[in-house]
Amino acid sequence: MEVTGAKMDTTHQNGTHLRKEEVLIEALPYIQQFEGKTFVVKYGGAAMGESLRDQFAQDVTLLKKIGIRIVLVHGGGKEITDLAARLGVESRFMNGQRMTTEPLRDVVQMVLAGKLNKDIVAMINRFGGRAAGVCGVDGTILHVSEASKTLGLVAETIECDPSLLTMLLDNNYMPVLAPLGVGSDGTIYNINADVAASIVAIALKAEKLIYMSDVEGIVVDDLTVNSISKSGADRLVKAGLISGGMIPKVFTAFETVDAGVNKVHLVDGRIPRALLLEIFTDRGVGTEFVREPI
Length: 294
Hints:
The protein is 39% helix and 26% strand. The protein contains 10 helices and 16 strands. Helix 3 crosses helix 5, helix 4 crosses helix 5 and helix 7 packs parallel to helix 9. The chain starts with a strand and ends in a 5-residue tail after the last strand.
C-alpha cells in the first residue's frame, strides 16, 4: 500500500511546477506501455459538468490518438432525475440505488440512450475523437438474465457480448456506451453504470478500468492512498479507515481485478486533466487497485 502526500500538495505533484519537457519525458514510458491496450472509462459525476467536459473530451481523444483503445461507459443520474421531475415521474431510491418503474425506465432510456449519449459523442467528435454511441441493447451487448427483486427494472445478473464494441474499436472508433440492458423477452433494463463498466472491462480483457468519480480515492489521515492491494484494503476496512459507500466500490474493484483486468483506478474527476495525470504521471491523482504482489 503506497500513500501519497495530502491533497494540498497535489497541484505540485501533478506537474504544474514542472517544465513541459519533464512532463513529456515522464509520460513517454507510459505511452509506450499502453499503446494498443484497451481502457474502459466510466464517465460521470463532476467530470460531466460544463467546466470540465471539454477537457475530458480532449483527454480521451488524446489517449485514442496515441494508440490506446478507449471505451466509455457513461452515467447520467442527475439528468434522469431532472427529466423525471419535469415529466412528473417519481424518482425513488433504496440504499442509494435508483428504483426503476416502467415509466422511470422510459425516462432512463430517453436520457441515457438518447440525448446524453449523443451529446457526449458530439462533444468528443468535435475534438476529432471519432466516437460512436451505442447502448447495451445494441447487438445485445448487455444481456440481462435476472432482474433485481427490490429495485424493479434494474438488472441484477448481466452478461456482456463485446463483439460490437470490438468491431468498433478495430475500425478506429471510440464506443460510448449507455448502460441499458435487454432480457431474452425484449424487456429493457436500467443498469448501474459502475457495474456495466466493470462487466465490459472484464469481457474486453481491458488493461485498465478507470472510474471518474467525485471522491479523491481512498484517503487515510488526509493522505491519498496511491496504490492498494486486496490485503491492504482488508486491513483498512477492519480498522474502520475504509467505510460506508467506499466499501462496495473497493470490493467491486477487486472483483474486477480478480476477473482479469490488470488495474482499476478510482480518479477524482473534479481535478482538471485528472485522467491524463492518473495515467501518465508516477503518482497520479487517485487510488489504483492492483493484484497482490507475488
